[in-house]
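Fill-in record for Selenide, water dikinase.
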Amino acid sequence: MTAPRMTQYAGGGGCACKLPPGELDELVAALAGSAPANPAAELLVGLDGGGDDAAVVRLDSERALVTTADFFTPVVDDPYDWGRIAAANALSDVYAMGGTPWAAVNLLAWPRETLPLEVAAEVLRGGRDVAHAAGCQVSGGHSITDAEPKYGMSVVGLVHPDRMLRVDAAVPGSALTLTKPLGSGVLNSRHKATGTVFAEAVEVMAALNRDASRAAVEGGIPAGTDVTGFGLLGHAYKLARASGVTLAVDAAAVPYLADARQALADGYVSGGTRRNLQWVAPHVEFGSAPESERLLLADAQTSGGLLLTGEIPGHPVIGEVLPPGPSPVVVR
């Protein structure tokens, strides 16, 4: 029996399935500033911060609770690898805040009439294995029947209130570091269309952002975010907008997965990537960067790395934080 190709059961794939960033901005704008009449805990990070990676509430002077949820349709055909990638992506929201994930529950939507539950079990096994590698408990969750398979996690973690990474704390004069190469979007699009497996991309997407997050916190870095569905440019713009600074990106210093440029040249560009570029273009000074470079910088990533305002040993510096200028993001 031929194993089912998971990506063929979904209209999109991975974080490229996110709502377009401009539409999402409008959707959440009405919620910003709202709060319960008698909150049980102080909200340290919410919608008012410019769209951070997770919500954070204070428990006491040394502990704050980080909570997030993330799920998406299949980004690769192998169900175990899809589970690994989806779990790493959900855990990344906690790492992007400088926190440590402690507990997670599964979120699963499954077309039970067309895909065996044995395949779902492999997805859950992949998620569990990555969460356990992170030292995070996994117990139960929620499942529904759906025409498209979807998987992810809701994750709870802890962070010190005074040692968080957040999008509104970037300071001019800091280096800009990226901890994973770009290109998963175009390679996933090629994989979906052709079935070609890109092993490097799978392992990069399944890798945890734990070590980079710890190094950032230990190094006193105040600001960062993870690079996912809105691409490097989209997440850089959100960080610059929230912090009131300009981020300068040196295009030649940005690392890419092998075969990413060829996949782009061959036309494997997702609709999510094109929407990213359309949304962010008015806020970016591109200089002489060609259209191909702009698309790669806007490529919709799945389980990407951290974009940090400081240097992390072993990871490339791709630019710097500047005082606010005419454009929130500058490509040099």
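KEY FINDING: The chain has two domains: 6-159, 175-331.
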